[in-house]
Specification:
alpha+beta; Membrane-bound Lytic Murein Transglycosylase D, Chain A; Glucose Permease (Domain IIA); ten-stranded antiparallel sheet; two-stranded antiparallel sheet; 14 strands
């Protein structure tokens, strides 16, 4: 038994020696592999990887100040909040959105940033009250019957021509000299009121009706906006009147007037609809220097 053990020792020694050599070879290979594979690991990262790493790098850098930040909190300026649109800011401040774009050097009115500070009164004007708007002179304009989708106007909706410049200007000049109680207002639609004014939840009156029912200008003025750029209003028209009044008409299915057009009280300006609404209705607002007021206080009794 002892002799067999001695005979096996050389074999075991050889086996152990070859095992050690094999392990040494593996160890050497494992050490060299990262060096040999290094060029592969240095390949240019995919775009998504670059994008993913950007926030951590940018987070360490100070945030650049927003445009107009030096005017934050000053009278006559407005700080943009989440969800704002330029047309909505214009409505709330009693201004024309085109004027806001010009005063603030906005090349693209659809691109405003949260935290950006906008001038909302004319340069050089008294900033108090911030919603004050000047009355523009009235010029002659032709009223086109133009649905929003560009399709031909419905039968019977013949184009109308605005009053001559002299008569329109004299009518508005006379209204400008009147007091608020003497301004002539008319109902913008024939339907019943389905939702009353509420300063917190409903900034105007909701008037019911059928799709296609006529919507009328509530008073003489000039179309300041015609489009669908204000969330919650659908296809909307805003008319500027004297004494810094604005009237707004929302949720229409077709708009029959265009921006900068002179309109007269009782003129058909739109067709009732349910754009951005769960039912057919006209949402009608009156604003004085941008502040919502109850239209029922100014409209004639029915």
């Amino acid at each position: 038994m002892h002799l067999k053990t001695k005979r096996l020792n050389p074999a075991l020694s050889a086996l152990l020696a070859s095992g050690i050599a094999l392990l040494a070879g593996c160890s050497t290979t494992a050490h060299r592999a990262p060096v040999e594979d290094r060029p592969v690991s240095q390949a240019t990262p995919a775009p998504s990887a670059v994008t993913a790493s950007a926030p951590s790098h940018a987070a360490s850098a100070p945030e650049a100040p927003k445009p107009g930040a030096e005017n934050a909190g000053k009278p006559g300026y407005y700080t943009v909040k989440p969800g704002d649109a330029l047309i909505r800011i214009a409505l709330d401040t009693g201004q024309n959105w085109r004027d806001l774009a010009r005063w603030n050097g906005l090349e693209n009115p659809n691109r405003i940033e949260v935290g950006q500070v906008l001038r909302v009164v004319p340069p050089g004007a008294d900033p108090v009250p911030p919603g004050a708007a000047s009355t523009r002179p009235i010029a002659s304009a032709r009223v086109e019957t133009r649905p929003l989708d560009g399709k031909p106007a419905p039968a019977g909706a013949a184009p109308q021509t605005a009053e001559p410049a002299a008569s329109a200007a004299s009518a508005l000049a006379g209204a400008a000299a009147a007091t608020e109680d003497e301004l002539s207002w008319g109902w913008p639609a024939a339907g019943s009121v389905i939702s009353q004014f509420d300063d917190l939840r409903n900034k105007g009156l909701d008037i019911g009706g059928k799709a296609g029912d006529p919507v009328y200008a509530a008073a003489d003025g000039r179309v300041m906006y015609a489009g669908s750029g204000a969330r919650g209003y659908g296809n909307m028209i805003i008319i500027k009147h004297v004494n810094n009044y604005l009237s707004a008409y929302g949720h229409n299915q077709a708009l029959l007037v265009k921006e900068d057009q002179v309109v007269r009280k009782g003129q058909r300006i739109a067709e009732m609809g349910n754009s951005d609404s769960d039912q057919v209705k006209l949402h009608f607002e009156l604003r004085k220097q941008g502040k919502p007021i109850d239209p029922a206080k100014l409209l004639p009794a029915r």
